[in-house]
Write a structure and sequence with these properties.
Number of domains: 1
CATH superfamily: Nucleoside Triphosphate Pyrophosphohydrolase
CATH architecture: Alpha-Beta Complex
Distance between the termini: 30 Å
Oligomer: single chain
Pfam families: NUDIX
GO molecular function, one term: hydrolase activity
Number of helices: 3
Protein name: NUDIX hydrolase
Keywords: Hydrolase
Mean pLDDT: 94
Radius of gyration: 15 Å
Structural class: alpha+beta
CATH topology: Nucleoside Triphosphate Pyrophosphohydrolase
Family: Belongs to the Nudix hydrolase family.
CATH class: Alpha Beta
Helix content: 10-25%
Shape: globular
Length: 147
């Protein structure tokens, strides 16, 4: 019997002195996103987050906290993924590399002015709510919202 499980991924909200880091994806689906990617076999989600941030932005980040785990089967059009989302910080200027055609910072006020791929708009909305209120996404509310 072969199991069909979600694929683990990570995404990172990187706070810098000049804003939040976003990338423009170089591969399909093309668009704006948070830095992140697939967790390699034998790798922790923490190591994957640090590695993906470095690969896509050139930034050496420090993880601060876990925002939430996003697992909606429709979050990625390519396949069912499950993303552990971290909040991190660093100094430096991002430079797009690897899967990122570009990397740049935007102010928190400008974050929602972009059109995002995957479920990154929802993640950013949750992040902004958390920064404003201290409330993280809550599993019970997610169950009610998703029926």
């Amino acid at each position: 019997m072969q199991f069909r499980n979600p694929t683990p991924t990570v995404d990172v909200i990187i706070e810098t002195p000049t804003g939040i880091v976003l990338i423009e994806r170089a591969h399909k689906p093309v668009g704006f996103a948070l830095p992140g990617g697939f967790v390699d076999e034998g790798e922790t989600v923490e190591h994957a987050a640090v590695r993906e941030a470095m690969e896509e932005t050139g930034l050496a980040i420090e993880l601060d906290e876990l925002l939430y785990v996003y697992s909606d089967p429709a979050r990625d059009p390519r396949k069912h993924t499950m993303s552990t989302v971290f909040i991190a910080h660093c100094d430096g200027i991002p430079e797009g590399s690897d899967d990122a055609a570009d990397a740049f910072t935007v102010s928190a006020e400008q974050l929602l002015e972009r059109t995002f791929v995957f479920d990154h708009r929802r993640i950013i909305e949750d992040y902004l709510h958390f920064k404003k209120t201290g409330e993280r996404p809550h599993p019970a509310r997610r169950l009610q919202r998703n029926g």
